[in-house]
């Protein structure tokens, strides 16, 4: 069965929201309890901002992956780029589970640093296939870099 380009984009976005849903479940476990009790830096955004930002980022991530997938899985560059993309998506999910689900701030910091690296690698590989797809990931990269600093500061303030 051949999947058309639009379907690939839709499926890629759906995958992002599946990851978001699983991560959201882990987040809800402690966002209203444990997380509220943590000391946070002055630049910590209000909780309500995370939902809209992540919704937009997941749409952009899915669109980017779909655009790359459209180039065809018979292309070795596409396979490698999407593999790296899936690995970073896995780290994205594991951060929520480790930070909120397991309440392991330092462990989550290690994961998010790996996530930044894999996002950069994804962008580099997407650039070889579809420039728009790569550019769509820059807001995600910047947000995760910001989240890394936030994670680090929360770890420092609560150690």
Structural overview:
With 159 residues, the chain is an all-alpha fold. It has a single domain (5-32, 46-158), classed as TspO/MBR protein (Ferritin, Up-down Bundle), CATH 1.20.1260.100. It is built from 7 helices and no strands. Helix 1 (5-30) packs antiparallel against helix 3, helix 4 (76-101) packs antiparallel against helix 5 and helix 5 packs antiparallel against helix 7 (138-158). The radius of gyration is 16 Å and the shape is elongated. The model has no long low-confidence stretch (mean pLDDT 96).
> Low-confidence spans: pLDDT under 50, at least 5 residues?
none
What's the order of the H and E elements?
Answer: HHHHHHH
The CATH superfamily turns out to be TspO/MBR protein
Which class of secondary structure composition applies to the elements?
A: mainly alpha
State the helicity in percent bands: over 70%
> How would you sum up the global shape?
elongated
- Assembly classification: single chain
**Level-2 CATH architecture:** Up-down Bundle
Give the CATH class: Mainly Alpha
Radius of gyration: 16 Å
Q: What share of residues are in beta strands?
A: under 5%
Number of domains: 1
DSSP strand tally = 0
What profile does the largest beta sheet have? none
Any idea of the CATH topology?
Ferritin
């Amino acid at each position: 069965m051949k999947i058309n380009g639009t379907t690939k984009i839709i499926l890629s976005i759906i995958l992002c929201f599946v990851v978001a849903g699983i991560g959201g479940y882990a987040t809800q476990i402690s966002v209203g309890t444990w997380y509220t009790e943590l000391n946070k830096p002055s630049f910590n955004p209000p909780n309500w901002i995370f939902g809209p930002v992540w919704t937009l980022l997941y749409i952009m991530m899915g669109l980017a992956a779909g655009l790359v997938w459209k180039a065809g899985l018979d292309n070795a560059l596409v396979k490698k780029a999407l593999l790296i993309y899936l690995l970073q998506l896995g780290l994205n999910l594991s951060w929520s589970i480790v930070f909120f689900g397991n309440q392991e701030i330092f462990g989550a910091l290690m994961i998010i640093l790996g996530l930044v690296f894999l996002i950069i690698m994804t962008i580099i590989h997407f650039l070889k296939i579809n420039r728009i797809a790569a550019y769509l990931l820059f807001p995600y990269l910047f947000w995760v870099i910001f989240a890394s600093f936030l994670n680090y500061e929360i770890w420092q303030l609560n150690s």
